[in-house]
Amino acid sequence: MRRTRWIAGAIGIIVVLAGIFLLPIPSLLEWQSIFLKRTFFVLIFCGVFCLARALRGPTPADRVVAVDILGILIVGFCAILGIPTGRDWYIDIAIAWALQSFISILALAKYLEGRRFEE
Amino acid sequence: MNTIIGMVFIIVGLTFDFIGCLGLIRLPDVYNRLHASIKCVTLGTSSILFGLFLYKGFSPAGIKALLCILFLVLTAPVSAHVLARSAHKAGVKLCDKTVCDKYEEDEKE
């Protein structure tokens, strides 16, 4: 049972990655580079993993960890988005997001510390 | 030339991000997930930002990318440490295969 689940998950991941890099994707914006159009979807796929962990994490600490990772991923997403569009202010959004995510994670950790989760 | 090296850095960063998120969804415990994902994702995102710096050169956007790497490397390990400490204080159980728990022993003394 565990082995079948493992094989099904591996096949699903390989199929999605191959689909990202092989299928023809219609141009969302006027981008010159073909490669950067695909890279952006890999980060969206990682974000789906984080959201899944945030939805079915057994404890509240799992959800906070998933939100932290999602914040760091969005910084990289803004950085990639700045290259093909040629707009430099996306990197400003990335800096602001990194600092604000740090402060909010500190506040959430302080909130977690005062509670007790007996399972 | 700079464009090709920047592209290589972006590919390395995407690989590290993907492996980190795989660890986030696959491992059995809060501490294992934190340990696997925060390092991979920090290195991957720093690598993507360094690729952006190689694309842009010494323009304002490139300098801002270096500044963003500095912020990320300073803040991400601190937030991971605080999260692990507060999760341990809140009483989240460790997984079954854990060998030793030094923080618990320190608390008892």
In short:
The complex is a heterodimer of chains A (119) and B (109). With 119 residues, chain A is mainly α.
Q: What does the secondary structure layout of this molecule look like, with pairings?
A:
The complex is a heterodimer of chains A (119) and B (109).
Chain A: H1 2-22, H2 34-56, H3 60-85, H4 90-113
Helix pairs in contact in A: 2-3, 3-4
Chain B: H1 2-26, H2 30-56, H3 60-89, H4 102-108
Helix pairs in contact in B: 1-2, 2-3
Overall description:
The complex is a heterodimer of chains A (119) and B (109). Chain A is an all-alpha fold. Chain A has a domain at 31-112. In chain A, 79% of the residues lie in helices and 0% in strands. In chain A, 29% of the residues are buried. Chain B has one domain (2-108). In chain B, 82% of the residues lie in helices and 0% in strands. In chain B, helix 1 runs antiparallel to helix 2. The mean pLDDT of chain B is 88. Chains A and B meet through helix 2, helix 3 and helix 4 of A and helix 1, helix 2 and helix 3 of B.
Number of strands of chain A: 0
Span between N and C termini of chain A?
26 Å
Structural shape of chain B: elongated
Beta-strand portion of chain A reads under 5%
Describe this protein with a few key phrases:
heterodimer, A: 119 residues, mainly alpha, 4 helices, B: 109 residues
